[in-house]
Specification:
The complex is a heterodimer. Chain A has 16 helices and six strands. Chain A is mostly helical. Chain A has three domains: 55-83; 95-224, Orthogonal Bundle (Cytochrome Bc1 Complex, Chain D, domain 2); 237-383, Orthogonal Bundle (Cytochrome Bc1 Complex, Chain D, domain 2), CATH 1.10.760. In chain A, strands 1-2 form a two-stranded antiparallel sheet. Chain A has a two-stranded antiparallel ribbon with strand order 3-4. In chain A, helix 9 (170-181) packs across helix 10, helix 11 (237-247) crosses helix 14 and helix 13 (286-296) crosses helix 14 (307-317). Chain B is mainly alpha-helical. Chain B has a domain at 58-251: Cytochrome Bc1 Complex, Chain D, domain 2. Chain B is built from 14 helices and no strands. In chain B, helix 2 (58-67) crosses helix 5 and helix 8 packs across helix 12. The chains are: A mainly alpha, B mainly alpha. Chains A and B meet through helix 1, helix 3, helix 7, helix 11 and helix 12 of A and helix 1, helix 2, helix 9, helix 11 and helix 12 of B.
């Protein structure tokens, strides 16, 4: 009896251990498979934890929704709190979302304005003399803080501008963009859009819409480009050359002339030469370019350059020939006069660098000669192609 | 009782041995699999030998070398292989179209492909299969392979299969997500994601598992060869879901056309010098043609 019981007990113990071991092996094998092949996703379903991007999107939607509610409350009751500017997760102004473009004539104009802004070379072709787009410097379609966002500019005009010594409406301001940054003098029409042109109306609709909910005449955080602190060494284009080769050339080309995709569309804009902004554009000022670069370049790696590097590379970019300042009135005014009158700021205008006097204005022919002379002289990174 | 305890202990020892043994077997088996599966997404202890001195213009450099490479010389390599290395087509397909985690090569820039082969050799990019393959390749062969696959054109055989959110993927491709500092894919890889220049490869019609794996590898350090770490920054900011969404969306796009490798620039210069007299009018035409 006891023997039999004992042996049965032994057997069942053996069996229990055998089952347990087999079970352990199966579990272990399954576990190692899941771990080794990242199959967890298939076991648990898609990740449920909210990503940072999703959180930010949620904050944006909520801020815009609150604005709608506050407006409604204030319309009905003057004693209710006045609407506050909606803000994003970083505290900057939150412009409206794409689905907020109204489904009416104004919305149509906003959409047209946005298309011009993203692709003026196609959508405002008659007035564009180079290969740039508004959105090259006003990133994310004019939404990005510290990239001269349009929501911060929309509510700040009319304003007096020292640059042209007059009260500027938003139309006047946009006219300036076409004249200098888009180099309208070399465009098919030879000039910026004439007063009252539809291009102005549509761009203004787009800006006004982007500024929906922003306070009037307020210096909003994130406006314009930041100015990096001045460094002890100052700026120097020769130091900037190395910064350029190491951080910029992979996109903008060793010769700074940008790169097109297979559709013939410029993906990386030219930074100097005949197809870039002219000597009257704000970006030719070393401080302006340094601020833009520091806060926005390389794309996706903002604030990765030191202040010194930003200053130096901004100087390098602006040490090459580019189209003439249109205020010279087709050369009736000399570079010296123009320098005296318009260029009392941080730039290389009028100086002779790379063996050429800057400010005289480059054209495709002159540019070709310049490139050849550089190759012969074996100067600058432009030859290190 | 005593005997029971002994058997018990013996069985316990057997069980422990069994578990440890099977654990070891499973690990070594999964390592074998690892070699076969090539790129995986977890990090283990493998890291690249990337140094911060990597030249950001390497792809342009290799592109120029590839432009002058002799494609005829490597044709056997593609279809048949050698005793030192496998045929490219055995994994990448007869038309360079790839499958799953094996990438499409057709229509990628010659400089980019050549650079990747060098990066495998220098362990800036880890993959057991490719590490083995490049051991049997000379620099000239790498350049010729780059040229061969760049000019190859083959229709897309990719389709979304990671159950990503295609609308989100489209948003990332066209606009990016600036709230996490991710620029649009198109802002560097071109307006159809067909690539730009020698450094920025086409993403269109790439296999989602491959695209996803690369993003994961930038995160975990198995790939560290992106110029100025551009892709590292992007990948770090993307969530698991965003990676699947964008990989799936890119797979819906039409494949890039074959690229004729740019003719040697020195030859071009010589020609433009010889026709200098006609230069100005020609170049002005070119200037305005750029705008059309």
């Amino acid at each position: 009896m006891t023997d039999d019981k004992n042996s049965r007990m032994k057997r069942s113990t053996k069996r229990r251990f055998a089952y347990a071991s087999v079970g352990a092996i199966v579990l272990f094998a399954a576990g190692s498979l899941i771990a080794n092949y990242n199959l967890l996703l298939y076991v648990t379903g898609p990740e449920k934890q909210e990503s940072q991007a999703e959180k930010n999107a949620q904050v944006a939607r909520q801020a815009r929704q609150e604005l709608v509610e506050q407006r409604k409350a204030w319309q009905d009751d003057p004693k209710a709190d006045a609407p506050r500017p909606p803000t994003d997760s970083a505290g900057y102004f939150q412009p409206p979302l794409d689905n907020e473009i109204p489904d009416d004539e104004f919305g149509e104009s906003v959409r047209r304005g946005r298309e011009i802004f993203l692709n003026p070379g196609t959508n405002a072709r008659a007035f564009v003399g180079n290969d740039l787009a508004c959105a090259n410097c006003h990133l994310n379609g004019g939404r990005r803080a510290h990239s001269a966002p349009m929501w911060a500019a929309a509510n700040n005009y009319p304003a007096y501008r020292g640059k042209n010594k007059m009260i500027n409406t938003m139309e006047d301001r946009i006219n300036g963009c076409f004249t200098y940054s888009m180099d309208a003098q070399d465009s098919p029409s030879g000039d910026a859009p004439p007063p009252g042109h539809q291009v102005y109306k549509d761009l203004q609709s787009y800006f006004y819409w982007l500024g929906d909910g922003a306070p009037l005449n307020e210096d909003m955080p994130g406006r314009g480009f930041p100015t990096p602190d001045e460094t002890e060494l100052g700026y120097d284009w020769q130091r900037g050359e190395e910064v350029f080769v190491n951080n910029c050339a992979v996109c903008h080309g060793a010769d700074g002339q940008g790169q097109k995709d297979l559709n013939g569309r410029y993906i990386f804009p030219p930074l100097w030469g005949p197809h870039s902004f002219n000597w009257g554009a704000g970006m030719h000022r070393v401080n302006t370019a340094a601020g833009f670069i520091k806060a926005n370049m390389p794309l996706g790696k903002p604030y990765s350059l030191s202040d010194q590097e930003a200053w130096d590379v901004a100087a390098y970019i602006n040490s090459f020939p580019r189209p003439a300042d249109p205020r010279q009135a087709d050369g009736k005014m000399s570079v010296e006069e123009s320098k005296e009158q318009y260029h009392q700021h941080m730039d290389y205008y009028g100086e002779t660098l790379h063996g050429i006097k800057l400010g005289e204005g480059t054209t495709p022919e002159r540019w070709e000669r310049f490139v050849k002379s550089q190759q012969t002289a074996g100067m600058s990174a432009m030859n290190q192609q | 009782m005593r005997s029971f305890k002994t058997t018990n202990r013996r069985w316990m020892a057997y069980a422990v041995l069994l578990i440890v043994g099977s654990g070891l077997a499973a690990t070594s088996w999964s390592q074998d699999q690892d070699e076969d599966a090539g790129e995986r997404t977890d990090s283990e202890s493998l890291t690249t030998k990337a140094d911060s001195l990597e030249k950001p213009l390497a792809a342009m450099h290799y592109g120029r070398i590839a432009a002058n490479a002799d494609v005829k010389s490597i044709e056997p390599l593609i279809g048949i292989g050698t005793d030192k290395t496998w045929a490219c087509a055995s994994c990448h397909g007869d038309h360079g179209q790839g499958a799953q985690t094996v990438p499409r090569l057709a229509g990628l820039p010659a400089g980019y492909i050549t650079k990747q082969l060098h990066d495998y050799a220098n362990e800036r990019r880890l993959n057991a299969n490719m590490q083995y393959v490049v051991e049997g390749l000379t620099d000239e062969q790498m350049a010729a392979l780059g040229k061969y696959y760049a000019q190859l054109e083959s229709p897309s055989n990719a389709k979304p299969d990671l159950s990503g959110d295609l609308d989100r993927g489209r948003e990332l491709a066209l606009q990016g997500d600036w709230s996490v500092e991710v620029p649009a894919c198109y802002s560097c890889h071109g307006s159809s994601a067909w690539g730009v220049g020698q450094a920025f490869p086409a993403l269109a019609a790439q296999h989602p598992s491959y695209t996803y794996t690369q993003l994961a590898n930038w995160k975990n350090g198995r790939r560290a060869n992106s110029p100025i770490n551009l892709m590292h920054s992007v990948a770090m900011a993307l969530s698991e879901n965003d990676m699947r969404s964008v990989a799936d969306y890119l797979a819906t796009l039409p494949a890039p056309p074959g690229q004729q490798t740019e003719p040697d620039t020195s030859a071009l210069e010589a020609r433009s010098t010889s026709t200098d007299a006609a230069g100005p009018s020609q170049s002005r035409q070119q200037g305005s043609a750029d705008h059309d």
